[in-house]
Amino acid sequence: MEWLTQISPMRAFSARARRAAQRVGLVPTMGALHEGHLSLVRRARDQCDLVVVSIFVNPTQFGPTEDYRRYPRNAEQDVKVLGPLGVDAVFAPEAGDVYPPGFDTWVEPGPEAEPMEGESRPGHFRGVATVVLKLLNIVQPHAAYFGQKDYQQMVVVRRMVSDLNLEIDIVVGPIVREKDGLALSSRNVCLKGEDRKAARVLSCSLKKAETLAASGERDAEKIVAEMKKIFAAEPRAQLDYAEIVDSESLQSVKQLGPGSVALVAARVGPTRLIDNTILEIT
Ligand code: AMP
Fold first, then answer.
1. Same domain for 40 and 148?
2. How far, in Å, is the centroid of ligand 1 from the Cα of 102?
3. How far apart are CA 147 and CA 156, in angstroms?
């Protein structure tokens, strides 16, 4: 496994692969890898000749009061878990190389970036879209792998790839969860003691939404009200939003339709968590 920290060797790696007609898959991550990331790596391994995992905690997607400095970093452990999966290269650039002095060109995402995370984290998706485009331009993959865990991010990226005519397949993997339902996240290591138990509230509220949808409830407002009740019963959790939206536009819906998505964000102790589920309608 090659460990590349500079942009030009990364480009050279991909140029060689392309000359050899090898399909390159990129899994962009911020490191502190867990089974959610690894599920994407395995999928890329199945579908591509060469797999590149990028590890980059992107400063431009964090707001000034957010946890950029405290974000979990664990490069040594990341190398250990990636080796046995047959990853060909890890691209782990320095922030100063990705954003050299004077850098000032941004990808401004469309309306999908406005609600929910966009409202709570102004500028977040501008940073995400910009770094994803940079990574795609540097690594030049044929396919890039994203998790449903960050549903809104996945929609913003898909839209960017389509709007900017990038010839890259965006592959989306399902959410990997702990036994008790908590979606895996690098931030979960920050959940201490009782907060870890309380964090179940996110997946519990989504389960409630699934159950109501499966039993025929179509009134999104009623479902959201039930989801909020679950948060209200957990004093350690501070709900940011609970929404049911259209799967493509991400606008709130009044009535559930095919593929409506329920999304939640909450702070549990000092840790901000997000989760979502696609509501099946039978
Ligand atoms: P991150 O390191 O948090 O930026 O995540 C890197 C990629 O892994 C993103 O596409 C995430 O959506 C995906 N991911 C994170 N957590 C999970 C999870 N629990 N299940 C599946 N994919 C995930």
1. yes
2. 30
3. 13
Structural domains counted in the chain = 2
In the predicted model, what is the mean pLDDT of residues 163-170? Answer: 98
Average pLDDT rounded to a whole number, residues 232-236: 98
Residues with CB under 6 A from ligand 1: 29-30, 36-37, 39-40, 146-147, 149-150, 173, 175-176, 183-186
CA of 147 to the centre of ligand 1 (A): 5
Q: Which atom of ligand 1 is nearest to the CA of 174?
A: 21
Find the 170 Cα to ligand 1 centroid distance in Å: 14
Q: Are residue 17 and residue 141 in the same domain, yes or no?
A: yes
Q: Residue 205: which CATH number?
A: 3.30.1300.10
| Strand ranges for 199-258 from DSSP E | 237-245
Give the helix, strand, coil percentages of the chain, each rounded to 5.
45, 20, 35
Q: Which of 248, 243, 240 is nearest to 221 (CA)?
A: 243
Give tens-digit pLDDT for 29-52.
999 999 999 999 999 999 999 999
Residue type, 243: E
> Which residues constitute the domain of residue 39?
2-173
Q: Helix, strand or coil for residue 169?
A: strand
The confidence score (pLDDT) of residue 259 equals 86
pLDDT surpassing 90 at residue 282: no
Choice among 34, 37, 124, 142 that is catalytic: 37
Nearest C-alpha to atom 5 of ligand 1 is from which residue?
29
Same domain, 70 and 136: yes
Please report the pLDDT score of residue 188 as a whole number.
97
**Is residue 34 annotated as part of the catalytic site, yes or no?**
no
